[in-house]
Amino acid sequence: MTTTTDLTGVRRVHGYCGLCIARCGTIATLENGRFTRLDPDPGHPTGQALCAKGRAAPELVYHKDRLTRPLLRTRAKGEADPGWRPISWDEALDRIARAMREIADKHGPQAVAFSQSSPSTTAIGDSAPLVRRLMNAFGTPNMVWPLDLCGWGRAFATRFAFGVASVGTGSAGGAMADIDRSGCLILWGYNPSYSRLTHATATVEALKRGMKLIVVDPRHAGLASKADVWLRVRPGSDGALALSLANLMIVNGWYDRAFVRDWTNGPLLVRTDTGQLLSAADLGASGAPRAWVAWDAAAGKPVVYDPAAGRYDCDTSRGDTGGLALEGEYAVATPSGTIACRPVFDHYAALCRRYDPQTVEATCWIAPADLERAARLIWHARPVSYYAWSGHEHHDNTTETARAMALLYALTGSFDAPGGNVLLPAIPSRSIGGEELPSAKSMAPPIGLSERPLGVAQTNSVSTPDFYRAVLEGIPYPMRGLVGFGHNMLLAQGDPVRGRAALAALDFHVHADLFMNPTAELADIVLPIASSFERDGLKIGFEISAEAQSLAQYRSALVPPPGEARPDTDVIFDLATRLGLGNQFWGGDIDAAYRQQLEPSGLTLEQLRAAPAGVRVALTTRHAKHADKDAAGNPRGFPTPSRRIEFWSETLRAGGHAPLPGFVEPRNSPLARPDLAASFPLVLTCAKPTLFCQSQFRGLAGLRRRALHPEVELHPAAAASRGIAAGDWIEVRTPAGAMRARARFNRDLDPRVVVGEHGWWQGCEALGVPGYDPFAPDGANFNATIDPAARDPISGTPNHRSNLCEVRRISDARTLQAP
Ligand SMILES: Nc1nc2c(c(=O)[nH]1)N[C@H]1C(S)=C(S)[C@@H](COP(=O)(O)OP(=O)(O)OC[C@H]3O[C@@H](n4cnc5c(=O)[nH]c(N)nc54)[C@H](O)[C@@H]3O)O[C@H]1N2
Ligand SMILES: Nc1nc2c(c(=O)[nH]1)N[C@H]1C(S)=C(S)[C@@H](COP(=O)(O)OP(=O)(O)OC[C@H]3O[C@@H](n4cnc5c(=O)[nH]c(N)nc54)[C@H](O)[C@@H]3O)O[C@H]1N2
Ligand code: SF4
Ligand SMILES: [Mo]
To answer: Model confidence over 516-552: pLDDT tens digits?
Structure first.
């Protein structure tokens, strides 16, 4: 029995919490139709525990500040009071469709951008494929959302190495840490105790059976207290750390040589004269230019590697790759003379050697002994799995860092092995994102593509700085409209003052949300949206384990939304109809979309609706799928251009980047800018709040009570030398801007590091605590301090976590005085 009602009018309903990426399995209690409690569902693969945010769900649902009616701006943007006038849904949708059409007629549909909050911090995942479908049907490639900060490092940068995400994300697939069977888990810039409870509970269980744990974090946060090794890395230097761990592993022979030889492009030869891969064409006229060459030390001669077949000559002829060289220099005879060459792996090992323990102590602020313990553990406690997130993703060197980490991981040979990062099976489902629609194939290129063709624009995603520029300067083309589903970009992203100017300059802007926020304040129309507890949702697979992947669940609305609020999905369908695109939206039938999604699964909507706790589909996990052979006996390999894990990326080289994952100092680091460090001597990073999701929930008294004010963590020694006492209001200033927060002491930090928290703007009336001006230096907006020019050259990711700062006690803290 999955949904029960007793005689006192109490009903318990199975579902899952949509508030963050953990998607915890839940049982909701309804008393006489009112949603009163949310509890974990221990029978659910993600239902071991709930966090405080999940337990506060009833407060969120019934909060007095929820938006309840569509609102129309009646005063000019820039006026303090927008003069919101409630309007009907009909009027709102008509106005939106008309404005979108007008902009499209004048400038093309690409001049209307969409935006969307991250599915990791909101329930937008319930509707995200349909938002994409609407974009595809309308004909705009421009989705402004935080992919550059969230997902790029894990799921896209690691593809340069593996061809698939070696650190999976919920939405984009990829390999997930098989924590249940790992010998050693590395949590790298990731604190699941705060951010993804399901992973934290799985880790604690695994530690009980003896799994080893390495935590890489400037803070001694979360599971660091249970770690065998905690590496207190200097923010932004993770790439150097990864190379240095790889160095120790290579030097000590602590790596899977056969795996590197057979499954990476480490054996391919690099010409010493040109610094390029030696191609089969270099060996003679009959060689294909896209076929490469390795050195067969057993035979003492070069062998051709054919990426199309994924095999070496020696493998085809002898059935043996054991003689392929990974190090050394070889003189290869070619028609144009002898060419000295070294294998890719030899170059990689040389790169890693530059990060010897002493260099790394100066670069990463990590003691050589800790480094050695970590490297030893990674090898001796195999199989290894890892999960990495915001800590390594929010930097202007994130692509190279993520790649260096992925390649360190390749050395373990644990990829897709039991206990490693495993490409889990999934319930078969069909996309409803509309990629196949004719309009999707004839869209203009997205903003940012020409400058960073290998970056987020590949996925029709736009970084906010590029969006702001397109609006304000028409580069690369005019951007005149924005249709926003949640994303609170003025808080989530840097340069809020420019962002405000950009939003104010749009011809039309609609924002759909549960609450008013600073981004919505600048819209022409604001739409009231149902929370995930007030709408249905379909989830096919829960990502974190093979068991979780096998569950499909249809979540039903617990209670009606407040006032006239409606689910995003309904809004998308209605808007599509008004835009004349209804025929591409199943004639307005939302169930038809779910049915299309479910069709290959063998599950029916009726079956799922009748089983609120979900339905399991038997899935079998197979490992080492790269070794599967096709009919011709060729191995499947990896979906990279070479069909091998790529230590050397021809894709990046052709794009003008380093083929090996070199470490680049963050633009504003103490080592890159000693001149700046003279007046801004501290390194500023940040971490997620435990009680809030990003910029949300500060208005919920039950949560805010436990974190009344924005805080900044610093070492007592750094505070003492500046006359700062615990609890003092301090100003954090960078060359780009400033914010204020209260000082919280943390003895575990390196005294040169300061850790803030972003997302503070909202007040909480019930507790009488104030809100903060996101645009003023005496506000509490962390992202007002970041340097908008510091961006990753490949992805465009802005640097939110390794900037220089100085802190000082504020003697005149009137604006922020605690009540
Ligand atoms: N300094 C610093 N900056 C950061 C980060 C950091 O750690 N430090 N983190 C970055 C990361 S990882 C991310 S993902 C971004 C997050 O940036 P955003 O995706 O903008 O996330 P939030 O700030 O949580 O804002 C989400 C908004 O969506 C609304 N919302 C919630 N549920 C729904 C829904 O179902 N439908 C609709 N339409 N709206 C909904 C909320 O009310 C809220 O206004 O911020 C990034 N910015
Ligand atoms: N409670 C809560 N849960 C959330 C969210 C939330 O806002 N609140 N947001 C959701 C979203 S959108 C995301 S992306 C995930 C993110 O989940 P996490 O990645 O766990 O998020 P963070 O706490 O931002 O960062 C993780 C750790 O990185 C460390 N760190 C800071 N700088 C560096 C660095 O330079 N290198 C390394 N190695 N570590 C560093 C921080 O100290 C922090 O402990 O959480 C999701 N879940
Ligand atoms: S961790 Fe908390 S907010 Fe996230 S899904 Fe679970 S209960 Fe909901
Ligand atoms: Mo995120």
So the answer is: 999 999 999 999 999 999 999 999 999 889 999 999 9
Q: How far is CA 254 from CA 140, 355, 378, 409, 613, in A?
A: 49, 17, 9, 12, 45
Residues in contact with ligand 3 by the CB-under-6-Å rule are 17, 19-20, 22-24, 50-51, 53-54, 197
**The pLDDT of residue 204 is above 70:** yes
Give the span between the Cα atoms of 67 and 44, in whole angstroms: 32
| Region for 657 from its dihedrals, namely left if φ exceeds 0, alpha if ψ lies in -120 to 50, beta otherwise | beta
Q: At what angle do helices 238-251 and 357-364 cross, to 10 degrees?
A: 170
- Please tell me the distance between residue 727's alpha carbon and the centre of ligand 3 in angstroms: 29
What is the per-residue pLDDT for 818? 42
Of 651, 761, 748, the residue nearest 710 (C-alpha): 761
Name the average pLDDT for the chain: 96
Q: What gap in Å lies between CA 593 and CA 434, rounded to an integer?
A: 11
Domains and CATH numbers, the chain: 4-61 (2.20.25.90), 81-148+437-542+551-616 (3.40.50.740), 152-256+350-422 (3.40.228.10), 674-816 (2.40.40.20)
Tokens of 335: 């028609």
Which residue's C-alpha comes closest to atom 8 of ligand 3?
A: 54
Ligand 3 centre distance from Cα of residue 694 (Å): 13
Report the pLDDT averaged over residues 582-590: 97
SS3 state at 127: coil
Backbone angles phi, psi at 125, to 5 degrees: -55, -25
Q: What's residue 315's pLDDT?
A: 84
Q: What is the identity of the amino acid at 139?
A: G
Q: Is the distance from CB of 368 to CB of 251 less than 8 angstroms?
A: no
- Please identify, by atom number, the ligand 2 atom nearest to the C-alpha of residue 685: 32
| H/E element, 552 | strand 551-555
The values of phi and psi at residue 114, to 5°, are -110, 160
Checking DSSP bridges between strand 525-528 and strand 508-513, what pairing results, if any? parallel
Residues with CB under 5 Å of ion ligand 4 are: 118, 120, 150
pTM of the model as a whole: 0.97
